[in-house]
Specification:
The structure holds two protein chains of two kinds. Helix content of chain A is 57%, strand content 0%. Chain A contains two helices and no strands. In chain A, helix 1 runs antiparallel to helix 2. In chain A, 38% of the residues are buried. Chain B starts with a helix and ends with a strand. In chain B, the strands form five sheets. In chain B, strands 2-3-4-5-9 form a five-stranded antiparallel β-sheet, with no helix packed on it. The radius of gyration of chain B is 31 Å and the shape is elongated. Chain B has six helices and 22 strands. Classes of the chains: A mainly alpha, B alpha+beta. At the A-B interface, helix 1 and helix 2 of A face helix 2, helix 3 and helix 5 of B.
Chain lengths: 68, 491
């Protein structure tokens, strides 16, 4: 049985979805350049999603497991 | 040579082509050809490269607006952090134990650092040479290279999306810490939530270990983890007959000469005569530089004239009394000295089972020629680990968690030996005697079969800091300089 996620807030935040957002932004830049504002917003959201996924992947430890 | 905006956009088109066509497309090819699958951190680093390329596309399309350049610099800086954080997971492993397959002898998490650092350098160079013109509003028509960069970007990111779908799954699944090789067969796809555990953000994660404070421990033996312990009464009290500059934190006795070794005042080391009344030698260690000795808590005689002291963080120093020490050479070792002590060794114990645990005790087993530490529990690692180090090279020889011997029972289902906080230890007759500041209990550990043979409640103690043997007696030191005499148990 698959485990349910505890962090409901990041449900939907995953790599596949992120690449789709990036593709969408790139498509707008390339084919619909007049939609610059939307493209930039997608860009920023994708950056934040990437950063959040990285933090999740480090198991909550912002700094490495070494002596500071 | 000033760089025009058109020139900048042409260069950026090639930067995007190199970035998307090189590491990002190469990563997909590695997956398809060799089954390589990125872990969740690799995914983030790869995505960051894609986003930097996307920032390049924005500049190609809309000109060098500050917000695009700012995003690219932020992504470069964040990418360097991610790569270093990722690499740190593998820094402490042994040779050849990096994660996944290396490319040109270097693992991908290191390449992520190289690429992000290069991106920052390229952005800096481009800005350095960019002609200072106010960026105009409006959409630019990309050059042929720019159009190729956009097409390539869409194709490469599309391929990454497909790989991400197979490797990490559709929403709401996310990437894995230990992925399996890429397969086009859906039966082999692993979609999981494992990286959502634990659900919190911490600064240091499992490395958040508080410094032990044995004075906060409950001294009442009746509350200890072992049930129905016999009592070992204090036969008498003695007191160190010379003033110490600070609180006592460790004790050892040399069975051959009867001398005592004390550590006190965080970094003070005292060699006393057999009466505990006269200081033979005294130094204050320099706790910093090279190896941090903070604060000293363990002491042992290693045979002959060699003295060993250890600090809470399992660092050690070896000292020897000498008729006349070289003041210039010893100045770097001691904050103060009587001029007749030389430091002959300095280092750190490396443990495996007791990793990320502090130790407040040191003993020396002369028959095995081993130094012994006993770990103290912390909120993240609740274990009592006996670690043994070879005297010859000070390297770990063995570690074990003692088992309970016959006749000993735990007081409850959630209790264990790790409830004890061992602050003093000594070896005699093949037994390790360990005194715990928590629950004022003496543990007798058989070093041969790694079993707790006996345990005794010692009422009347208040947060002991050291333990030594003298014939049939055990000497339990307290921070105030008082020493409790106990009859050494035969069992």
């Amino acid at each position: 049985m698959r485990e349910k996620p505890r962090l409901r807030s990041i449900v939907g935040a995953m790599e596949f979805l992120n690449f789709l957002l990036i593709l969408w932004a790139a498509w707008l830049v390339w084919r619909r350049p007049e939609r610059e504002r939307l493209a930039f917003r997608l860009f920023v959201v994708s950056c934040l999603l990437m950063a959040l996924l990285f933090l999740v992947g480090t198991h909550g430890s912002l700094v490495p497991g070494v002596n500071l | 040579m000033p760089l025009s905006e058109d020139r900048l956009r042409a260069i950026l088109a090639w930067v995007v082509i190199v970035l998307a066509g090189g590491p990002v497309a190469g990563a997909v090819l590695l997956g398809v050809l060799h089954g390589d699958s990125p872990c969740i951190l690799c995914w983030a680093e790869r995505t960051s490269m894609v986003l930097i390329a996307l920032a390049g596309l924005f500049v190609i399309r809309y000109g060098p607006r500050p917000r695009y350049l700012g995003m690219a610099i932020l992504l470069g800086a964040w990418g360097v952090f991610m790569a270093l954080r990722h690499s740190a997971l593998h820094l402490a492993r042994d040779v050849g134990q990096g994660f996944s397959a290396p490319i040109l002898g270097v693992h991908t998490y290191i390449w992520a650092w190289v690429i992000h650092a290069t991106v920052l350098a390229v952005i800096g160079l481009l800005l350095l040479f960019l002609r200072e013109v106010a960026p105009a509003d409006g959409v630019r028509t990309p050059s042929r290279a720019g159009r190729f960069a956009m097409g390539l970007f869409v194709v490469v990111v599309g391929a990454n999306a497909l790989q991400a779908f197979a490797s990490t799954g559709p929403p709401p699944f996310i990437g894995q810490g230990d992925p399996v090789r890429l397969s086009l067969d859906p039966r082999h796809w692993v979609w999981s939530f494992e990286e959502l555990q634990p659900p919190y953000i911490s600064l240091r994660g499992s490395w958040t270990i508080p410094v032990p404070n044995p004075t906060a421990a409950d001294p009442d033996p009746a509350h200890g983890p072992l049930a129905g312990l016999p009592t070992l009464a204090v036969s008498r009290w003695e007191r160190i007959g010379t003033p110490l500059n600070g609180a006592l934190s460790g004790l050892a006795r040399d069975s051959a000469s009867g001398r005592f070794l004390l550590v006190a005042d965080r970094y003070g080391v005292y060699l006393l005569d057999s009466t505990l009344a006269r200081v033979l030698h005294h130094v204050v260690m320099d706790p910093g530089f090279s190896v941090d000795l903070w604060p000293l808590t363990g002491a042992a005689f290693l045979g002959g004239d060699t003295l060993a002291v250890t600090s809470t963080n399992k660092s050690w120093a070896l000292l020897e009394p000498v008729p006349r020490a070289d003041p210039a050479a010893e100045w770097r070792h001691f904050l103060s000295t009587d001029g007749q002590v030389s430091e002959v060794g300095l280092g750190r114990f490396q443990t495996v089972r007791a990793h990320l645990m502090y130790a407040l005790s040191l003993a020396f087993d002369p028959s095995a020629q081993q130094l012994i530490t006993v770990s103290v529990p912390n909120p993240r690692h609740h274990q009592l680990v006996v670690s043994r180090f070879a005297r010859a090279d000070m390297v770990l020889s063995s570690e074990f968690e003692p088992r309970l011997g016959p006749g000993l029972e735990l007081a409850g289902p959630n209790r264990g030996l790790a409830d004890y906080v061992v602050t003093g230890a000594a070896v005699a007759d093949g037994r390790l005697y360990a005194i715990s500041a928590a629950y004022s209990t003496l543990l007798v550990v058989d070093l041969q079969d790694r079993t707790v043979r006996a345990a005794y409640a010692v009422p009347g103690l208040l947060h002991p800091v050291g333990l030594a043997t003298r014939g049939s007696e055990l000497l339990v030191a307290q921070a105030d300089g008082r020493i409790a005499m106990l009859e050494r148990p035969r069992r």
